[in-house]
Automatic annotation (TrEMBL):
One of its GO terms (molecular function) is endo-1,4-beta-xylanase activity. PANTHER family: ENDO-1,4-BETA-XYLANASE 1, GLYCOSYL HYDROLASE. Keywords: Carbohydrate metabolism, Hydrolase, Polysaccharide degradation, Repeat. Coiled coil: none annotated. Residues 529-745 form the GH10 domain. The keyword Signal does not apply. Belongs to the glycosyl hydrolase 10 (cellulase F) family. It comes from the Eukaryota. The lineage of its organism: Eukaryota, Viridiplantae, Streptophyta, Embryophyta, Tracheophyta. This is GH10 domain-containing protein. GO terms for biological process: polysaccharide catabolic process.
Amino acid sequence: MTPYDNNIILNHNFTEGLNSWHHNCCEAFLVPAGVESYVVVTNRKECWQGLEQDITNRVSIGSTYRVSAYVGVSGAVGVSSDVQATLRLEYRDSSTTYVFIGRKSVSKDCCEKLEGTFSLSSKPDRVVFYLEGPLPGVDLLIKSVVVTCSSSITCGNSGSQSISSGEGIILNSIFEDGMNNWSGGGCKILLHDSMEDGKVRPVFGNVFARATERTHTWNGIQQEITGRVLRKLAYEVLATVRLYASNVTSSAVRATLWVQMADLREEYIGIATVQTTDKEWSQLQGKFLLNGFPSKVIIYLEGPPPGTDILLNTLTVKRAAKVLQSPPPVIENVDFGINIITNTNLNNDTNGWFPLGNCTLTVAIGSPLIIPPAARDSLGAHPQLSGRYLLVGNRTETWMGPAQIITHKVKVYLTYQVSAWVRIGKAASGAQNVNVALDVDGQWVNGGQVEINDDNKWHEICGSFRIEKEAAKVKVYVQGPAPGVDLMVAALQIFRVDRRARFDHLRRETDKIRKRDVILRISGSESFHGTAVNVRQVQNSFPFGSCISRANIDNEEYRDFFLRNFNWAVFGNELKWYKDADELLDFCMRNNVHVRGHCIFREVEDVVQPLVCDLDKNDLSIAIKARLTSLLTRYKGKFKHYDVNNEMMHGSFYQDRLGKETLASMFKAANEIDPSALLFVNDYHVEDGRDARSCPEKYIDHILQLQEHEAPVGGIGIQGHIDCPIGTIVRHALNKLRILRLPIC
């Protein structure tokens, strides 16, 4: 059998002239030369113009196809020109999409081999393969095209594939056939039926594998699964793992996917992590999905420190069951804005309250008479408070404070707002955190947090929470100051928030603030009486962005959804290295999407690269300058914004080593290299009341300190990671930040 026997391209080497081929908005002719015949595509006025063939009835869902084409260029060519293979997928009820297959840089009058792969996760109404790419005026030369099914699953013309839902993707999954199909990634692999005089035995089957002589954390047992996994399908991974070492008793074991694309780009996909020990087997479970067109895929285990062996009893990978969408919860008879806390105003002494731990509760007078601002924004007009508060004394642990059981008052699927006045006693030394917390069947839930630096002021605490399943017991309590510090709590309220009403309010505000009258003046005709005029918005001027990654944009559905809904983008981690960032930036610029550079540095030590952490003071200063120069010179004028040093409210890596003035120096150096970009601070939990470290007041103080050191701070970044957003709390925080008169995004 030759490679052409299952070629789905008709007349692949043009022995029948241009039969089965179509030239797309250009001209084409055959240069006959026997088996060396080729087609010239000429009079091209656009890059996308070329030669195409309809292959709709010859491709199947789920199969992987390998493309090989011999191509060249001629005419007004510079040093070289790119030729690209593309699929056009046409749908009757939605927009046409395009799938990149492969690209080859071709020199003039040279014949080069263009290769790539593709697969379909759904069946379009029409599938067209075509070759395109050179600049207008450059002729495209095509000698032959071969498209064959390369997956191990049988290819057919039925338009559907039957893919095993069992354990067939991993071969020899419980080592019945020894170590066949397995290999060691930078280490040795051995097979055992038991270890430690029978203390370590397999849970499944008769044997288990051992990855030993590991010198790096990424070393481990692995298996290549190329051709057995399909793109845009979810897979479940289940592994039984354990440790074996003389000096490590517990460590994380990770399952990871290494993927190499047709263009040799590499990607690492984290699947799952489990904390396991040397005493018992643990189950590692996770999911993964491939977006791109892989040419090679390897699954492997990694994670423990060098010298620690990884034991593997079984590893399975199977198609994930389709998750059926749950119907929306039925929520009836809900009283929004009603406080569920008993005896909030303490009119009945401490009835309804109890001390958590051996602390004491007494009622005192002297708290504020108005409800806290964030609650007032949600509830509107409210009766005057009583002025009474709970005084919590004899506290010997930070968690001690006033508590209530609210199990039967909390409803699932509803968002609750938390509000209270809090204060601390005079014995405090330094800043103290106060937290409203919930104990939901033993799980801690954050209801809001505030940091207090003085003992003579009342402070607002606000937050939110949402419970997703019925709980046997729900307890709310206030905690936080150091042992020995008295805690004062007044007007604790927890009430349900009507999010639907909030959206209605926002629509009214939008109509009032953002909409304007438009006058159409129509000329050129005698009468327009009775003429219908339709106005359709085709572009949104309001900046609305999303985080994207290089892997995401290989998924056509994801890519189309992003482009339909967003006009700004920020990269996940791609800006650490430049190849993926280059491709993402090119994608955004081609689609008129503005980009924010995230980020130049990160201040949280846990996410700073180990090689940077090991640098001495002098080398670290040199590395900072090199990073600034390399990044901002490469992308000068292309990023509208930069997050200069991410999450400075939650870390202090650079300032601890080089001094606080280093933070301002980063801004000044970035501005000197690329003065066109706005430079942002960026942090999380600024707007939801859940983290005292990054509350608006501390964020404002941080920005002012940077500005005092002449840092050109151009904007305030808020990451927006909010679990249970409350509109009034968010607005309350943003209004505080407004004092700086800087853009917020």
